[in-house]
Design a protein that fits this description.
Blueprint (H helix, E strand, L loop, with lengths): L7 H30 L8 E2 L5 E2 L27 H5 L2 E10 L4 E6 L5 E5 L12 E8 L4 E8 L1
Parallel strand pairs: 5-7
Antiparallel strand pairs: 1-2, 3-4, 3-6, 4-5, 6-7
Length: about 150
């Protein structure tokens, strides 16, 4: 005759599991009864058109229809302005130029942006505070001033 595989320890663990399940079911029933007494359930929150949480649903007549194709994901490419297309030659002032190192910076007179200028992009010799004409070209770190002429 074979011995039972059920040991004392296994039966005790099974009793503990059963007891935990029963306690959990009792707590669940108590929560349900409490929610019915309070007349509740889960309260709903809505988001109004300004992004604030409110307890009243929004008016469906004010809903705005948006097409999925109109949504732009990411950063849109910068379009050139009209003046950039028609007049590639810009005017500016040399704010800094180091002849020993061969580079400097030019401040655009229209938008006060500072552009890098290398000695290889010069047509005339320039010094600090000179007024110059230049064109912009995309470089490794941004826009560079090229074909720089002294005015």
């Amino acid at each position: 005759m074979a011995k039972s595989q059920q040991t004392y320890n296994k039966t005790e663990k099974e009793k503990q599991r059963r007891k935990k399940r029963e306690e959990k079911a009792k707590r669940k029933e108590a929560r349900r009864a409490e929610a019915k007494e309070k007349g509740g359930g889960i309260p709903l929150a809505y988001v109004d058109f300004n992004g604030n949480l409110v307890d009243t649903p929004p008016d469906p007549s004010l809903k705005v229809k948006i097409d999925a194709e109109d949504i732009v994901l990411g950063i849109p490419k910068k379009e050139e302005s009209d003046e950039d297309k028609f007049n590639p030659i810009r005017n500016g002032k040399v704010s800094f130029f180091d002849h020993s190192k061969g580079f400097g910076f030019i401040i655009d007179s229209e938008n006060n942006e500072k552009y890098f200028c290398h000695v290889s992009g010069l047509i005339d010799e320039i010094e600090e505070n000179n007024t110059v004409q230049f064109e912009l070209e995309k470089g490794a770190r941004g826009m560079n001033a090229v074909r720089v002429k002294k005015i």
